[in-house]
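Example 9 (inverse folding). The structure is encoded as follows.
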């Protein structure tokens, strides 16, 4: 099993996004990049540079359903017939039209001004509308194994950045495909989301993210392939620094 990092442009302030080609007898992608012509062109070119093409993709694993990580999934599936895999808590964001009403209600309860909520809704609807309508979406839960001819990747549910965020862990190589759970030089930002179990309540993102970091520390990957920027090899120091950062921010509040 070989892992190729593909770096795709995005229209967002975060900058480029990393998606990963899992090269085996059957090709798989971990994340896809945003639904833009520039990202599609970059994906085509980098796949060609690795000796492959879009039509060879058989599986697409989505770490989480933010636009920069899953926007191209419908086009890739249409071109290749690939199956799309996602955690159950993120499935609706791929199969149904985007509904921002639950989040807008939580924002209003938190005291966000009406005009800011409307700006938020306009931005989200612009970037999120194209993702609904995927066919053959399959569910991955914590502990599931994704088999390949040269081994398997284990699904690790890593809530925090989003409720249904997942990573893929290779036991033998001790590496993790980490999505936005661990990021080089920037905070993974456990953002506000409705709780998938009780949508009228806020998901406890920061608390769950701290638990995720504890769990990853116990798994002890030696290398984390991140969703943005460089790989992370020192998880212990990363975790310590990030927990300190969160404590400082809470004290300021």
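The amino acid assigned to each position is listed next.
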């Amino acid at each position: 099993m070989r892992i190729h990092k593909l770096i795709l442009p995005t229209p967002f302030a975060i900058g480029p996004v990393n998606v990963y080609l899992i090269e085996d007898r059957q090709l798989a992608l971990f994340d896809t990049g945003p639904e833009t012509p520039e990202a599609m062109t970059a994906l085509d070119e980098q796949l060609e540079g690795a000796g492959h093409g879009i039509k060879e993709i058989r599986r697409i694993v989505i770490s989480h359903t933010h636009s920069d990580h899953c926007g191209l999934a419908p086009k890739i599936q249409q071109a290749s017939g690939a199956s799309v895999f996602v955690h159950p808590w993120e499935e609706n964001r791929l199969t149904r039209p985007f509904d921002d009403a639950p989040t807008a209600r939580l924002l209003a309860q938190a005291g966000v001004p009406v005009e800011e909520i409307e700006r938020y809704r306009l931005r989200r609807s612009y970037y999120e509308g194209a993702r609904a309508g995927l066919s053959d979406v399959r569910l991955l839960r914590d502990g599931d194994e994704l088999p390949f001819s040269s081994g398997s990747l284990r699904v690790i549910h890593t809530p925090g950045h989003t409720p249904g965020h997942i990573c893929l862990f290779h036991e033998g190589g001790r590496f993790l495909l980490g999505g936005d759970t661990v990021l080089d030089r920037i905070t993974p930002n456990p953002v506000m989301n409705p709780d998938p179990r009780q949508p009228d309540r806020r998901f406890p993102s920061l608390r769950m993210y701290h638990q995720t970091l504890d769990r990853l520390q116990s798994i002890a990957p030696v290398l984390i392939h991140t969703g943005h920027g460089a790989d992370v090899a020192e998880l212990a120091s990363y975790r310590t620094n990030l927990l300190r950062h969160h404590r400082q921010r809470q004290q300021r509040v």
